[in-house]
Amino acid sequence: MRKYLLVLSIILIAVTCAVSQQVDLLIQGGHVIDPKNNIDGVMDVTIDDGKVLEVAEDISPEGVFQVIDATGMYVVPGLIDIHGHHFHGTVDGAYLSNSYTALPPDGFTFRSGVTTVVDVGGAGWKNFKTFKEQTIDHSKTRVLSFLNIVGSGMAGGAVEQNLADMDAKLTAMEAKRYPQYVVGVKVAHYYGPEWTPVERAVEAGTLADIPVMVDFGGYDPPLSLETLFMEKLRPGDIFTHCFGQTRNREHIVDENVGKLQPFTLKAQERGIIMDVGHGGGSFTWDQAVPAIAQGMKPNTISTDLHTGSMNGGMKSMANVMSKFLVLDLSVQEIIEASTWKPAQVIKRTELGHLTPGAGADVALLRIVEGDFGFIDTNRWTMKGNRKFICELTLRDGTVVWDLNGISKPIWESRFENEAGN
Q1: What is the CATH number for 89?
Q2: What radius of gyration do the chain's Cα atoms show?
Q3: Quick check: 226 pLDDT over 90?
């Protein structure tokens, strides 16, 4: 009988402990910015079983397994970088399609608060399965894809000029085969007078009901941006590298007079998405400063991450976001363009917010003050006194980046605990 009562007591204690520790995590005292839910203020966030449980003021820590003090930090949805290159591999000379220039996501995402990336065009319909098995299936970062309209993907050079390998029907078929991963179609790097690559990408996007992202190549004389925005693209399609200043392409700001092209704001009003896509050669102060001063703010902020950009002026998502502090966008505008807006653009509205029940992808960001310099892709520096750093990143409620150990116990305390025992 005593043995039975002892076992029963142990079971009751275990049940009592389980009931008293119902919540995994409380993020306490941070400034929550959640544009989808119009939250902008000091709030607490609870997380349980990998999902957001509650966002409210002064949530009691009673029954919470772990509490993280977020005082002085911004608590935001996990950032979404909708322009990166992650089809990394070892195929020599294949540029961003299973080759050395692309990057494995996990080493470059969480440290900036990014929990979702979109590889744009690395894979086409012919090699998407390889990309999935090689990168998507092995990444803690959520990896999505814009299929290249070129079936062979973004392999560079003559491969990307091959009109015969731009098949709208087969691209759409592959997109519909993998709807959980494929969120768009990419057209890029075409140097010719034809509109065929754009037209076939739009056809594929229409067949699969997904957006198109255009990295406008170049030609002499340049093709018309106004035609691209107002006739070729659909509302919801994306013009990336919007602040770029590459040769043989029209720019949104006429640098000869410093004026924003008059059709640019009309295109944005029509629903054309202006995406940053910073990269190694596609963000200049000459374009960004006058464009924003004249009312054209980017809809989405993205990096165009690859080996050619990560050690240049781009650096990271946090660094690109910091440039828009210099350009006087509000913190709220920057966070929206890095979370909820890109989620809407790629039609993944389960992402980019902190609604109770949503997956707990969360970033804790801090704005630090100092003397900083921000380099554009023309190698000009603009000075600033504020920048973002990422203190902590959660992916489905699990800590995947912790810059200063705020989610961990203080080391000295273990001696106190041992002494107490």
Answers
A1: 3.20.20.140
A2: 24
A3: yes
